[in-house]
Design a protein that fits this description.
The structure is a single chain. The protein is mainly α. The chain has a two-stranded antiparallel ribbon with strand order 1-2. It has eight helices and two strands.
Length: about 180
């Protein structure tokens, strides 16, 4: 009777650490799957980020400022790791665009209120300050017309109160209020 020696599985050795070949293959496959999943996740995240920025640009270009701001405040954007500079830039552009729409409708006090929310660290701050002064001038003009044409001092003074103290036109408000 012939006896065969016991078959042994080949082993892979790295500094006396022995792994059977099937286990080593499984380990390599798992590592590859983890790496591929990480790259895929990063790729999909980058594509989603590009889509959000594209949507923001489209809303801005099409003057859909409310939609632009809604997207910026959405959970989708809040949960993404969009650089604060990009969010800040689009927020300023869309906020000022919305303010300009209000001014175009002659709703200067609302336009000023929207523009005042743009802070100094925003790229649109200087432009917002300029527009606030411009719209403050429009409010002053309306107040003067009401005072001179309608002789309604109360309404004229009430309108002047809408000019922010931060506007360089506020000195004019003080002068007119004292004069009337």
């Amino acid at each position: 009777i012939k006896t065969y020696p016991h078959k042994k599985t080949k082993k892979f050795s790295v500094n006396n650490f022995l792994l059977p070949y099937p286990l080593l293959i499984q380990l390599v496959i798992i590592i590859l799957l983890i790496v591929i999943t990480g790259f895929l996740k990063a790729y999909l995240s980058q594509r989603k980020l590009e889509k959000i920025i594209s949507n923001l640009q489209t809303y801005f270009t099409e003057q859909k400022y409310s939609e632009c701001l809604d997207l910026l405040y959405s959970d989708e954007v809040r949960l993404m790791s969009i650089e604060p500079e990009i969010k800040n830039e689009y927020w300023g552009k869309c906020q000022l665009g919305l303010a300009q729409q209000k001014a175009d409708q002659k709703n200067y006090d609302e336009a000023i209120s929207l523009a005042l929310s743009i802070k100094k660290n925003n790229p649109k701050y200087q432009e917002a300050s300029h527009k606030i002064d411009l719209w403050s001038g429009k409010i002053i003009e309306e107040a003067i017309k009401i005072y001179e044409n309608d002789k309604n001092i109360e309404l004229a003074l009430k309108m002047l109160e809408k000019v922010p103290k931060t506007s360089y036109r506020h000195q004019e408000v003080i002068y007119l209020a004292d004069k009337w």
